Amino acid sequence: MRFRAAFASALAAALSFLPLPAFAQRATVEDLCRLHGIERQENIVRIGEAYAAARKAGIGEEELLPFLEEILKHKLDCPQMVRVLAAATKLREEGLPYFVVFSKVREGVAKEAAPALVVEAAESKLKTLSESRDVLKSLEANGYRILDFQNAAVIVSSYIEKGYTSDEIVSQIRKKGIQGAGFAALSGVVERKVKRKER
Amino acid sequence: MCAACEKLYREIADIDRILREMPGKSIEPPSHLRSRIVANLQEEERSPAWRPWGKWAAAIGAAAACLLVGVVLYRGAVPKESRVAPLPSAAPPAARPPLPAATAPTTSPPAVKLLIVREVKIYFYHPAASKVAVTGDFNGWNPEGVLLTASGEPGVWKTTLRLRPGAYSYNFIVDGNLLVPDPNAPDQMPDGYGGTNSILLVKGGNSV
Predict the structure, then answer these.
(1) Buried-most residue among A174, B51, B205, B207 (CB within 10 A)?
(2) Chain A contact set for B72 (CB, 8 A)
(3) Residue span of the structural domain in which B117 resides
(4) What residues of B are in contact with residue A10 (Cβ under 8 Å)?
(5) Does a structural domain hold residue B168?
(6) Is residue B120 part of a domain?
(7) Please, what is the Cα angle at B12 between B11 and B18, to 5 degrees?
């Protein structure tokens, strides 16, 4: 009996530490949606599915739930919210810095931008970050070591937004080096592999 | 022994002696007596086959549960980012405020490249402003921003941010509501919302 009691209490303690099950999360998302005026059940379900996909991709609830509340407050409609969450999810799945999307959306909220513009900006970040991943892969293939992939992706995406093409960034770095090509912000996160001389 | 008990004992002993002295007489119990007695006996409760293993199973279960608790506690203690990605990330934390001055060194030792934090001084000239703050990617575009203080020069505001290497978009907040780009920033970029962001590139390595 003592063992049974010990087992039961240990199991109860373990269960109390586990994250909320999916149905409980859905209830929270649903509560938030209703609180901010989304009433149609099909819309709530779609938002809940996008939210669950983001959680499954590995974005923590402690970031995701406040973010959801912010976009609900900013009156993004259901398809817009699904698009923004999908952009962050895709970045997270590909190991790219998904928080850039959150930041861009928050920027739009701070600047009181129209929800449609906020979604466009978020998807634009997805595009430039995907391109920057290709740039970093090319650099790796050309003998560069990426010391901090996520940070490097953010920096390269800022160069892409400034108007450089992916090919230009790679070719200029190959020809002139990181400093010489004017991409100094990449130093420290990308470096040339040093070849050892064979005796 | 009491007198009554002694008398009763002697009577029984006499009966027993008389019975034993009767030749050729053996008294058998009735044939149904045994089956009646057996039928009235309660069957002994048999232990289930798993009972000998029960204590071990419970002990193993408790140990597994404790291990699970340990894992869950450990997961809770480790920061989320290092849980999902084994390598530590020094990417600019979008919603993370700049590190407090008391805890962050100007630059971490060069050997630990991923933990480099740089001090960036921000100046802004706006003589008409009564309050100036800076906000951007480094603090998740917090509408309050990081307050600038009067530098001592007329109209010049200043603050110091502690940032990891990376690219940060930012704007100044003048008198609590007007977002303006930094006129002195070498890099400016359309923000996608009809305005302009200033870009702050914080270099990595030891090159700054």
Answers:
(1) B205
(2) 14, 17-18
(3) 113-202
(4) 61-62, 65-66, 69
(5) yes
(6) yes
(7) 90
Is B146 inside a domain boundary?
yes
Please count the CA atoms within 13 angstroms of the CA of B100 that sit on its side-chain side. 2
Quote the CA–CA distance of A188 and B208 in Å, as a whole number: 11
Which of A67, A103, A126, A162 to substitute to test the interface with B, most B CBs within 10 Å?
A103
Structure tokens at B161: 């941010």
**Per the CB < 8 Å rule, is A17 touching B69?**
yes
The domain tally of chain B equals: 1
Min distance A116 CA to chain B CA atoms (Å):
10
Q: Where are the domains of chain A?
A: 31-192
Q: Is residue B194 part of a domain?
A: yes
pTM over 0.90: no
Tell me the pLDDT of chain A (199 aa) as tens digits.
566 666 666 666 665 555 555 555 666 888 889 888 888 999 999 999 999 999 999 999 999 999 999 999 999 999 999 999 999 999 999 999 999 999 999 999 999 999 999 999 999 999 999 999 999 999 999 999 998 899 899 999 988 988 899 999 999 998 888 877 778 788 878 888 776 655 5
Counting Cβ atoms within 10 Å, is residue B18 exposed (0-12), middle (13-18) or buried (19+)?
Answer: exposed
Read out DSSP for chain A?
-HHHHHHHHHHHHHHHHSPPPHHHHHHHHHHHHHHTT---HHHHHHHHHHHHHHHHHT--HHHHHHHHHHHHHTT--HHHHHHHHHHHHHHHHTTS-THHHHHHHHHHHHTT--HHHHHHHHHHHHHHHHHHHHHHHHHHHTTEEES-HHHHHHHHHHHHHHT--HHHHHHHHHHHHHHHTT-GGGBTTEEEPPPPPP-
The partner residue sitting opposite B192, judged by closest CB among A63, A121, A147, is A121
